[in-house]
């Protein structure tokens, strides 16, 4: 009986994920309305529950893909994977205002460069404070503080040790998860309530998943603007970190 | 038809992703440079053009609107497949680096959006003044 049920779930993975996510959202919106009186947005609750489920999945299987490592929930991996995520992000641009995007073009580009450089400098400083002194390790961890893709790309280009590369991925993941959870809380203190600041936000934070999740929980109308700049961040990071930023780091730390 | 909207979306994403890859090769980076962003720009411009020419029916728009509405559920699924264990197991260096970066970046948001805002607001005010003057002249 259980095996039959489990087979149905495994064979219809993507459909299971629609059901599971729908139920999760229903519960989250209920929690949001009843326990927080709507102060804490339903999708923010849902994202936290999602991250919690990912933790449980990771602990119970030892895998890297959270809940989707558990056989019957494999469909979550498809639904939350890069392909559908990018498809849905592009679709959010459907309601976006091109004039707003054009107006924020310059601050968007400035924030992209600032975002990569500031994240890198902060990452390098923390790594240095913890006793890393060689330029390759410092650069790799600094790159990981940009996003969890820039870290390993930079690390393998410079020949960093696998322990340092893992560390850089972890730093990027912490950034991404904290951005997802924290954005709705911090939004009103940093004026994140209009397309222009959302574009700047995407450029400064850079983690596509973090910005996408965080803005969705803050105000879904802001998503296209933030996602827009965030998608350029990883590319820019992969360009700057192993080249210019590495040379500067090597010049400073020898 | 609904599928036309979905097709439009799919073509934008495919072209954007391809251009992002090409851009990556041009600048010599092993990553997609802004593919999704390019796709979004394409979609905004195409939808604008098609709407103006009455080529985008309500049904076709529904195809795009559906995927736009699926965005939040997909983001929640994305959260559920993150490697949260690795983030926590990364130890103090990873956690502190992540937290510090997010904190500093948050602090910079008001500064940078201010730069942009002041410029555009001045610009808008000038525009309004300009238009009013024209009207007065008439």
TrEMBL record, chain A:
InterPro entries reported in the protein's UniProt record: Mal/Na_symporter_MadM (IPR004691), Mal/Na_symporter_MadM_N (IPR018402)
Keyword list, A-Z: Membrane, Transmembrane, Transmembrane helix
Every Malonate/sodium symporter MadM subunit N-terminal domain range: 6-253
Transmembrane spans: 12-31, 40-58, 70-94, 106-130, 163-186, 198-218, 230-253
A GO molecular function held by the record: sodium:malonate symporter activity
Pfam family for this entry, one: MadM
Keyword Thylakoid: no
Protein name per its UniProtKB record: Malonate transporter, MadM subunit
Organism: Thalassobacillus cyri
TrEMBL record, chain B:
Domain of life per record: Bacteria
TM spans (from-to): 34-51, 63-80, 92-112
Pfam (any one): MadL
Keyword terms: Membrane, Transmembrane, Transmembrane helix
GO cellular component, one term: membrane
UniProt keyword annotation of Hydrolase present: no
Keyword Membrane: yes
NCBIfam families: malonate_madL (TIGR00807)
Name this polypeptide is given: Malonate transporter, MadL subunit
Species of origin: Thalassobacillus cyri
